[in-house]
C-alpha cells in the first residue's frame, strides 16, 4: 500500500425533499449566489423555482448563468468568471450533473486568478484558491459533486482537458434520488457507465497490497450492476435510484483510490473521442473500456481474473486464468450492451478517419495511463479494437 | 434507504514515516499544543521524542498531560480541561489509541463549556464547540481518529457513557502502520474485534434497501478477517498492518452508517461489563457480540444468512436458512477464539454475580439497541448466553 493523504469534507445531504435545504446551506457562505445550470429541464421540473425560493427565503441575492452544455465549454466558464469578479460572488451553486458542476469549478478557480482560466488546464498556472461551491445534483454519473476535479473543453482546437485542486471540492452536495426519476434511459445508462468507469480506473493498479480498496471497489461495482436494470425498468424506484446515486458519489470521492495509483488511460482516450465527436462521455467509456481491457489484460492476468470472479461471479479456472480474465471483460461488455450503451465505435457512427489524429493529440503531453503506459501507436491499436 | 447527512472532513495522512508531519499539521491551528498520551510506551518507542521535535521545529509551545488509562477517566479529563482554560490551548494532540483520543475529545468539548464536562455524558448539556484535535494513532481499534464520538468512565459510580458532536471529529489523523508493529498480540486482537464490532453494529439494521452499505461493510469485514492472522503471526508485516489500520478507520468514520440505523446494543452492553470489570473493550465485545447474535437472529434470519454467506462463505441452505444463519454466528465466534479473544465471560473470569446489576444499570435510561429493543430482562438472558 502506498502512502496517501485523504481528505473529503463535502457535506452530503442525501434523500427525499433535501433540495429544500439549499438556501439554508448556501447562507453559510454569504448572500451573493451565482446559480449555474444547463438547459431548461430544471425549469420544466420545478426544481429551479424550488431552489430560487429556498435561496430567497434566506435573503440571498441570486445571479444566474445557465446554458452549460455537455462537455462544458471554456467560453461559458469565462463568462462566469467575469460575473464572479464583477459581483463579488460568495458561492457558486451548481444545479445539474457533472457538466454543470465542472463548469462551476472552473469558474470558481478562475474567479480567484488574474490570468485566463484555461491556463489551469494547460499547466501554465496552478489553482491557489476558489470561490466556494455548492451542488444540487440531478444526474448521478460524474461524481463531480465531491471530487476535486473538473474537465473542460476548449472550442479553440477542441481540446478536452482536466485539472484538480483540493479547494474545488464542493462545500455541500444535495442528493435527492427523486430528482433522477425523469432522467431518460440513455442518460441513466451513460451515468451508470461513467461511475463504473471511475471505479475501474482505480481498480486496475500495479499496487499489489490494496485488499481493502479492491474489495470496496468490488462492493460498489456489484451494487451498481445489481441496480442498473431496475432503474431502467422502473425509473421511479426510489431504493434503486438511491443505490445508484450514492454509489456514483462513492465511486469518485477518492476513498477508492487510497493507497494505490489508478490508471485513467481510458478516460484520457475517451476525452479525445468526445472532444471531437460530442458523444456522451459515458457512451464513449462503454466503447473504450472493454477495448482497453482487451489490449492490456496480459499485463496482469491475475487482477483481471480477480475482477471476473469477484465482480461477475465467473468461476476461477486455475488451469486457464486467461480464460477467466477474458470472461470478465466479456461480461462487462455484455452488461454495457444490456443497458443500451454502444460498445463499438461503429455503433456510435464513428469511423476510423480520426484514429491517428486522436492518438497523436492524446499523447502529445506524454504517454497515457499508469497500469500500462500507452504511446500513440497503442492508442491507434485500441481504437482498432473498438471499431 | 433513509435520508442522511454525511460529513467527515478529517485529513488522513497515512503511511510510513508520516509522524514527521505532525508539527506542520498542528501549526495550522496555533502555537499552544496540549500533548495528550497514555503511559510510557510512546517514550520507550521514541515516538514521543519524534513528535516533540516535530512540534518544536514549528516553534510550538508544548504542554503535556499523560496518564490516560484504558477506559479513560473523567478525573483526568477535568485536569485537561483546566489546562486548556488556563493556557488557552489551540490544539489538543492525542498520541495513542482510542482511550487517549476519547479523552482528548472530552477535554476539547469541556474546554469550551462553563459547567462540568460530565454534563455532556448525562445529557444535562450539549456540546456547542470544541478545541481542535489532532491525532497520531498507535492502536487501530476504536476508530476514534475520525469519529465524532467519545466514551468516558466516571469513577464515581463506574458509569461508562458515550457522547458525540460534529466538532469532535479530529482535524487531522496521522496513521503510520509501522507504529503498530510493537502492539502485543492480545491488544492487536482486541483492536481487530473492536473494529469488526463497529461494522457489525451498523450491519444489523432493520433498513431493507441498503445494498451499497451492506456490501461496503462486508468488504471491510472480509479484509479484516483476511489479514488478522497475518498481523498476529508477522507483527512487522507492513501490508497486513496497513490493511488493518485503514480498515479500523473506515469501520467507524460513518460512511458505513449512511442510509441506515445501526444497532449498538452490544456496545452498550459491553460498556456495562468493562465499566465494572476493567476488561479490554475488544475482549468484552468478543464475548457479547456472539451472545447477542444468538439472542436476536430470529428477528431477521435472512440478514444473518446473508452475513454468513457473504462474509464467511457459508453456502446458503435455502431449505434451512436458520442453519445458514447459525453457521455465520459460529464462524464469528470461532474467529474471535482463533485470534486469542475470550468468547465466554468465564474465560475472562467473570461470574454471574453482577448480571442483574449490569442489566439494570444498562437499561436505566431506556432499552438498548435498535435492531431489537432490549429490556433489562433481555440483558440478563444475553449475559447467561455469554456465561
UniProtKB/TrEMBL annotation, chains A, B:
It comes from the Bacteria. GO terms for cellular component: cytosol. Keywords: Oxidoreductase. Residues 10-177 form the Alcohol dehydrogenase iron-type/glycerol dehydrogenase GldA domain. GO terms for molecular function: alcohol dehydrogenase (NADP+) activity; butanol dehydrogenase (NAD+) activity; metal ion binding; methylglyoxal reductase (NADPH) (acetol producing) activity. This is Iron-containing alcohol dehydrogenase. Residues 189-384 form the Fe-containing alcohol dehydrogenase-like C-terminal domain. It comes from Ectobacillus ponti. PANTHER family: ALCOHOL DEHYDROGENASE YQHD. InterPro entries: ADH_Fe/GldA (IPR001670), ADH_Fe_C (IPR056798), ADH_Fe_CS (IPR018211), BDH-like (IPR044731).
Amino acid at each position: 500500500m502506498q502512502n496517501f493523504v485523504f481528505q473529503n469534507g463535502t457535506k452530503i445531504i442525501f434523500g427525499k425533499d433535501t433540495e429544500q435545504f439549499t438556501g439554508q446551506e448556501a447562507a453559510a457562505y454569504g448572500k451573493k449566489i451565482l446559480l449555474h445550470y444547463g438547459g431548461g429541464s430544471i425549469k420544466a421540473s420545478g426544481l429551479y423555482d424550488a431552489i430560487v425560493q429556498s435561496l430567497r427565503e434566506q435573503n440571498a441575492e441570486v445571479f444566474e448563468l445557465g446554458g452549460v452544455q455537455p462537455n462544458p465549454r471554456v467560453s461559458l466558464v469565462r463568462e462566469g468568471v467575469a460575473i464572479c469578479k464583477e459581483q463579488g460572488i460568495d458561492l457558486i451553486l451548481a444545479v445539474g450533473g457533472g457538466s454543470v458542476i465542472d463548469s462551476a469549478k472552473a469558474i470558481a478557480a478562475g474567479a480567484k486568478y488574474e490570468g485566463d482560466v484555461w491556463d489551469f488546464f494547460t499547466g501554465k498556472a496552478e489553482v491557489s484558491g476558489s470561490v466556494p461551491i455548492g451542488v444540487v445534483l440531478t444526474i448521478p454519473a460524474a461524481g463531480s459533486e465531491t471530487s476535486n476535479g473538473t474537465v473542460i473543453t476548449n472550442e479553440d482546437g477542441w481540446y478536452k482537458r482536466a485539472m484538480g485542486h483540493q479547494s474545488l471540492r464542493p462545500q455541500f452536495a444535495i442528493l435527492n434520488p427523486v430528482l433522477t426519476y425523469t432522467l431518460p434511459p440513455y442518460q441513466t445508462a451513460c451515468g451508470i457507465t461513467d461511475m463504473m468507469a471511475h471505479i475501474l480506473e482505480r481498480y486496475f493498479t500495479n499496487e499489489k497490497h490494496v485488499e481493502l480498496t479492491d474489495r470496496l471497489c468490488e462492493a460498489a461495482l456489484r451494487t451498481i450492476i445489481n441496480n442498473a436494470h431496475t432503474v431502467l425498468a422502473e425509473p421511479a424506484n426510489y431504493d434503486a435510484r438511491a443505490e445508484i446515486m450514492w454509489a456514483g458519489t462513492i465511486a469518485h470521492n477518492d476513498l477508492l483510490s487510497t493507497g494505490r495509483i489508478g490508471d485513467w488511460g481510458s478516460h484520457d482516450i475517451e476525452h479525445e473521442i468526445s472532444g471531437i465527436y460530442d458523444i456522451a462521455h459515458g457512451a464513449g467509456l462503454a466503447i473504450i473500456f472493454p477495448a482497453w481491457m482487451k489490449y492490456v489484460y496480459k499485463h496482469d492476468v491475475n487482477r483481471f481474473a480477480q475482477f471476473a470472479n469477484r465482480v461477475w461471479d465467473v468461476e476461477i479456472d486455475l488451469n486457464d486464468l486467461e480464460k477467466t480474465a477474458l470472461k470478465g471483460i466479456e461480461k462487462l461488455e455484455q452488461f454495457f450492451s444490456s443497458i443500451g450503451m454502444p460498445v463499438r465505435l461503429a455503433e456510435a457512427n464513428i469511423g476510423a478517419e480520426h484514429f491517428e489524429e486522436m492518438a497523436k493529440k492524446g499523447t502529445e503531453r506524454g504517454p497515457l495511463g499508469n497500469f500500462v503506459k500507452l504511446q500513440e501507436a497503442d492508442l491507434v491499436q485500441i481504437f482498432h479494437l473498438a471499431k
